[in-house]
Amino acid sequence: MAKFDGDLDPLWKDLDRAIGQMLIMGWDGTEVTPQIRHLIEDHHLGSILLTAKNLKSAHQTARLVQELQTIAHQAGHPQPLLIALDQENGGVNSLFDEDYICQFPSSMGQAAAGSPDLAYNIAKATATEVSAVGVNLVLGPVLDVLTNARYQPLGVRATGDDPQEVSQYGIAAMNGYKDAGVATCGKHFPSYGNLDFLGSSLDIPIITQTLEELSLSALVPFRNAIATGNLDAMFVGGCGIANPSMNVNHACLSDQVVDDLLRNELGFNGVAISECLEMEALRNEIGVKTGTVMAVEAGCDLVLLCRAYDVQLEAISGLKLGVENELITKERVYISLKRVLRMKNSCTSWSKALNPPGISLLSKIHPNHLALSMKAYGDSITVMRDNEKLLPLNESMHQEEELLLLTPLVKPLPASSMTKTILESKNKTDSSQTIHDKWIHRDRGAIMSGEGVFRELGRSLARARHGKLLHTSYTANGVRPVHENLIHRATTIIIVTADANRNLYQAGFTKHVAMMCSMLRASGQKKSLVVVAVSSPYDFAMDKTVGTYICTFDFTEMAMFALVRALFGDFTPQGTLPGTLRKSKKVLKSRQHWLVEPYNQDRDSQGLDDLLQTLARASAPNHQYLQTTNASAFEIYNPGIEEAHFVVRNSSTQALYGFCATYYTKGTGVIGAIFVDPAKRNVSIGRSLHRRALRGLTQRRGIKKVQLGMCFPGIFLGIPVDDGAVLKSWFASNGWDLQFPKRLTNMTIPDLNTWSAPEGLLQSIQRASISFDLIHGLDNSESVLNHVATHASPEVFELYKFALQETKTCGVVRAKSPVDSLLGTVIICSPGSHLSNYIPALQPLADAELIGGIIAPIVPSTAQANLVLQGLALMGVRQNKAHKSTRSVLSWVQDESYEPLLAMGFGVLQAFEEVTNAPENVSFPCPPLFVLGE
Asked: Domain Glycoside hydrolase family 3 N-terminal: where (predicted)?
């Protein structure tokens, strides 16, 4: 019989309680029902999913959640309920209250605004608002990559089709949620970004990509988000997978997807949440009892059952039966229980759950959040083309001319007052949905609203132009006589489309009107056409027959308000299209040259600090050392090294868009760092900086080689290996030969208190008659400096000179042979040394952390090289421990030398590839059409 897990409260010996924590359930209705009360009290249900069908207002939501938590508390639940909510913004907000809850752009709209910082602020604001009413788990961020963006129902809920951009914005949003104190849940694993709706006999979409294809694209954001350590949960989808290596009917029921791919390959150790098992296809094929057991067997920790009480009871019964039949072991139950409890500990407590701040906090923060919303929507509006210079309309139209607005019949977004009004007055659903719509809207109950959803847009346009507006809707019936008459009357026509690629009548209607306008212009009439895509930007992105094309990325009231302001010149839209759409414009900008200026400390240091923090927030954790890097780290003021740094900046705002650090010493020119604001990539800023840097270095007298990466300062030792494919492609396209890089590795022992030397190492060193001593200062350093000059590059020589001068905090350990010849050297530095200012890996991320450094081991290749290196590392660790260090960092280990150090208990912190070329071999090519990562 399985033993109870001793790490858990004895109360959890009751297996029924533990099973209750493995379920997340919801119901229909805005009040607590006897059924949901019964599930919490008698079946120990530990998690609740709230949807738009439960929520009427912020005040009602706070009251409802507080009642749910009180029921759980009085029923003896050891920990509060998880209260989960879909609050993605754009069109997917379960909680809408125009008085207290702010509306923000969709994920794609936020990417169009071009600022991961803005995405972070939006996520933090959203999470702060829902937390105020008692929600502690946001089902987000969306990490799907729209591999086939044009036809996918996920649409603007996803950031776009570029895996790195999706990662960047997803991590920014996740950090915003976490900093507001709520738990996070990435979705929809392994991807809803390229679904095939025609290949399944079960009426469910399937993924047809191979695992290799998924790994290169769809899985990248999930992998990067997991690597940050901030992702509490993962929502595993219900789609099928059909490829040569995997044939799965429902991803969330497959151990190949959850245990093998998510946990073993991607390293996720948080809570896996299944798709709702009330899906019709799943119920008909497998049944809920068996499906619940299969979900847990696959590796899911929380099984979702959205609303049907009889089905929920069936799932509970299935789990208990699975344990009785030993299909699910008790150990398996307690593994999931511990994961769920760990997540609860991170986001809630009884004092927090029973006393949410509610309306008082929401009233206080609402003005600031409303200002953030207006800014975000304004920043997201994107003008892809305005070939005829129609914008702003108040300049291209005369007051007496008529403006015509043509809008489609659409389903209102759940996050709108229109939807709220309609749902309150009617209770019916549209039966004409496509399989796409049924899938993506399966829990939302949106209904057809006729032309009412855009009525307020028409009124706003009329008010903005202080004149008459003609407005009518269009349908799949095409261009009717009423449309023709209005088009003949108007001089400017605005056509609104919403997912025209999936609602083909909209595309046909728009093309027909565009042809009419063209013919009327040919006959001498003034007919201007503006097309506004209010959902997917792909509607007419590549159709050049539409000369003026604007994208808003959703059609909430706030989006339409921003659109009107943009159309009439209140501001100039600066949004850019996401992913490859943004990069497609690179064809037009490929020869763009930015003004590169010398870095000025007084003027640019604050801008550089801001840029570094932006990069740190946008990067996966392998670059977390950027958090401890500041502008001063690049300025070493060393007499043996000349330095020249460059910036691309906005001279009006003083913001830095890009920075490049270069150094020159004894015939070697080095690019020590080059980076670009993530919001300003793909517009040649990196290329402009790179060109200027190389021109400066190759013009140096006596230049023998140019190098990517530098150990002093040691911010970037080379090209980061984790980003290698993208960055290598970029540098290769900019003239570098990358065939023979030198690997440089930073390593660490994270806890010196528990570390001990490998058995037998000291004896091996003694048998080899290797001795060690420690020296300080330059007075007796001649042998060390001769050794370094012979076996290392010029900047390493300067690093050793710098360390030897820091007599109080740095020293050099020498390894010597029996005849007193030098076998190797390494720099040792104590916590807080001046050297750590230039090596971010030595800077602590936590206040209590004390990091000792073991820097730049120089060990020539001999039969004893590995043993000498291990001996130097051992002496370094001993010195670090003597200086009260809690952690050791061993920086700048060359090529494969890191492998013997792994056996000593060191782990890899970061890995880089240093590249060296002869100056004549680095060309200055004409800019190609497209460069990754620029």
From this structure: 15-342
**Contact yes or no for 683/810 (Cβ under 8 A):** no
Q: Which of 314, 299, 419, 349 lies closest to 53, judged by CA?
A: 419
All domains of the chain, ordered by start, with CATH? 24-361 (3.20.20.300), 381-410+450-572 (3.40.50.1700), 597-742 (3.40.630.30), 756-904 (3.40.630.30)
671: part of which helix (H) or strand (E)?
Answer: strand 668-676
Which tens digit of pLDDT belongs to each residue from 221-241? 999 999 988 999 999 998 888
DSSP state of 629: -
| Amino acid at position 668, single letter | T
What are the start-end ranges of the E strands in 476-546?
492-497, 528-533
Residues 356, 37 contacting (CB under 8 angstroms): no
Task: Give pTM, 2 decimals.
Answer: 0.71
How many Å apart are CA 120 and CA 618, to the nearest integer? 10
CA–CA gap between residue 576 and residue 553 (Å, rounded): 11
Do residues 252 and 236 touch, judged by C-beta distance below 8 A? yes
Q: Among residues 342, 335, 347, 355, which one has the least CA distance to residue 184?
A: 347
856: left (phi over 0), alpha (psi -120 to 50) or beta: left
Say if CB 622 and CB 722 are below 8 A apart: yes
Direct distance between the N- and C-terminal alpha carbons of the chain, in angstroms, rounded to an integer? 59
Strands in 718-873 per DSSP E: 719-720, 742-749, 771-775, 810-816, 822-829, 851-858
Report the SS3 class of residue 776. coil
If you average pLDDT over every residue of the chain, what do you get?
A: 89
Task: Count CB-CB contacts under 10 A for residue 107.
Answer: 33
DSSP class per residue in 501-521 = TTSHHHHHHHHHHHHHHHHHH
User: What is the pLDDT, as a whole number, of residue 412?
Assistant: 57
Residue with tokens 């379920």: 23
By C-alpha distance, which of 898, 896, 877 is closest to 886?
A: 877
Res 209: pLDDT? 85
Cα distances (angstroms) measured from residue 783 to each of 25, 70, 336, 770, 876: 72, 74, 60, 17, 19
Interatomic CA distance for residues 853 and 838, integer angstroms: 12
* Alpha-carbon span 286 to 294, nearest angstrom: 10
Q: How far apart are CA 515 and CA 483, in angstroms?
A: 14
Q: Crossing angle of helices 288-298/330-347, nearest 10°?
A: 80
Q: How far apart are CA 749 and CA 264, in angstroms?
A: 24
Contacts of 875 (CB under 8 A, 6+ apart): 772, 774, 813, 826, 828
Cα-to-chain-centroid distance, residue 748? 26
